[in-house]
Amino acid sequence: MDTTPEPMFPLPSGAPLRPVVHTQSDLLHLWQALMGELGFSRSSTWTLRLDPDGRPVPGLLEIEDCDGDPVPEHLDSLTALCLDVGGTSGRWVFLRSRPGRHGPDATDRAWARELTLACRRAGLGTDVVHLATDQRLVPLPADDLLASA
User: Fold this and answer.
1) 3-class DSSP state for residue 126?
2) CA angle at residue 53 from 124 to 145, to 5 degrees?
3) Within its chain, how far is the Cα of 54 from the centroid?
4) What is the C-alpha to C-alpha distance for residues 76 and 20, in angstroms, rounded to an integer?
5) DSSP sequence for 15-73
């Protein structure tokens, strides 16, 4: 009987166990694999560190109960934690998940914008923040968010 555990996410034969994230498309596929079947009972913020080569570092962190508007001071504390854990080596990626079927709303855009700004203040590398709802997983491009601030 084969007792080999299933991979964390499905990979084509011969693909690396730690995929390399170089593009927005790579990051979207990584988040899709990590989130699995969509459907959420509460709002959360997820973060994951990518090493300098773009490979995910084990340790996906979920911060629960992220309802309402983000508090910049709380996000500064989160980025300070990220600095303590991984320094400025590599980059940190974020995903906001919440229940509901509607597309990005003002609160989602505020979370993405404030996460991006907190990373800038801390000197952390980051990528596009993503949103996962009960029906979709989409990027929230920072250029659009910062222009509307």
Assistant:
1) strand
2) 40
3) 14
4) 27
5) --SS----SHHHHHHHHHHHH-S---SS-EEEEEEE-TTSPBPS--EEEE---SS--HH
With H, G, I as helix, E, B as strand and everything else as coil, classify residue 75. Answer: helix
Sheet holding 91-97, edge to edge: 61-64, 44-50, 91-97, 129-132, 137-140
* Other beta carbons within 10 Å of 129: 25
Length of the chain: 149
**pLDDT tens digits, 51-106:** 999 999 998 999 999 999 999 999 999 999 999 998 889 999 999 999 999 999 99
Q: Mind listing the pLDDT tens digit for each residue in 2-55?
A: 333 344 445 455 555 578 999 999 999 999 999 999 999 999 999 999 999 999
Q: Six-digit token pair at 62?
A: 């979920």
- Indicate the residue type of 23: T
